[in-house]
Amino acid sequence: MTKVRRWCYNLNDYKSTTDRGTSVKEEETYTMAWEIDAAHSQATFAVKHMMISTVKGHFNVLRGQLHIDEQNPDNSWIEAEVDAASIDTRDENRDNHLRTGDFLEVEKYPTINFKSTKVEHIDGDEYKVLGNLTLRGVTREVIFKAEYSGQGKDPWGGTRAGLSAKGKIDRRDFGLTFNTALETGGVLVGEEVKIEIDLEAVQK
Q1: Which of these, 169, 86, 89, 91, lies nearest to 135 by C-alpha position?
Q2: Residue 137: phi, psi to the nearest 5?
Q3: CA–CA gap between residue 55 and residue 59 (Å, rounded)
Q4: For the segment 120-168, what is each residue's pLDDT rounded down to a tens digit?
Q5: Cα separation of 172 and 192, whole Å?
Q6: Lower CB density within 10 Å: C or N end of the chain?
Q7: Global pTM?
Q8: Which helix H or strand E contains 98, and what residues bound it?
Q9: Taking a C-beta distance cutoff of 8 angstroms, is the pair 43, 60 a contact?
Q10: What is the percentage of the chain residues whose pLDDT exceeds 70?
Q11: In this structure, what DSSP letter does residue 18 have?
């Protein structure tokens, strides 16, 4: 077991238990850190194209950590990020365009980050995860509906956990306003982006 960060006032206000320069009551907490297993996880998105079809993509580079407290879900948290340049929609020309200033502007904003601020247990395996998504230098609160799949031992003696989450954003809220009007009405690229996350984490 290793000593890790401890929550103080809320899920964003954590600090090392070795930092004694505070009036907040200090309690050394020993727990196990969880690390996202990128080989068995994915962050995908879906956007309408020409108002009639859906284009899906994902990010090839994903990493992060989380804390799982099954007894007190309010103490749980997650921090994750993807490399924006690793976007993959199965079309090289489209991916290159998405990396430009019209969309992700990856040279200036190389990562997309999410930090949870609150985890609420809804019912059974269902949870609501609130957090801050930072995309293209803009941070907005987003809400994910999550499902926790529990924990299990892998063939190598380790412990793994699984969860999935779904949410949506309006890309214009993050400065992604590029579009083209269609002669028949509507626009080329949808404004709503549906996000789906599937994570497998390994206990460290």
Answers
A1: 169
A2: 80, 5
A3: 14
A4: 999 999 999 999 999 999 999 999 999 999 999 999 899 999 999 999 9
A5: 9
A6: N
A7: 0.83
A8: helix 92-98
A9: no
A10: 84
A11: T
